[in-house]
Known about the structure:
By secondary structure, the protein is of the alpha+beta class.
Amino acid sequence: MSECVIWTGPRQGGYGAVWNGRTWKRAHRLAWEKEHGPIPAGMTIDHLCCVKLCVNTDHMEVVTRAENTRRQVRTAERNARHAAFMRDWWRRHPEARAAFKERMAHG
Length: 107
């Protein structure tokens, strides 16, 4: 996958935002529509990279809202499993934890 293109302008709800004179529009949706045309009714854009500020349309896919929600739940579950694994790993490796803290304290 290519690199993310990070939106550096205004934000709303964690997403890039553009004021069109009447209302705020999400930057990633505008990027998609500029490159691919209108997003079909009942569909939404999924960030395949999971970066809300990314406006790289190669990182986007048009999906149903239900599919987007399923993907978000899977990502949250995977992140929770990884966090639990890392907490357990640090607990089982006190020498690595001490070395890490030492490096952080002294640059």
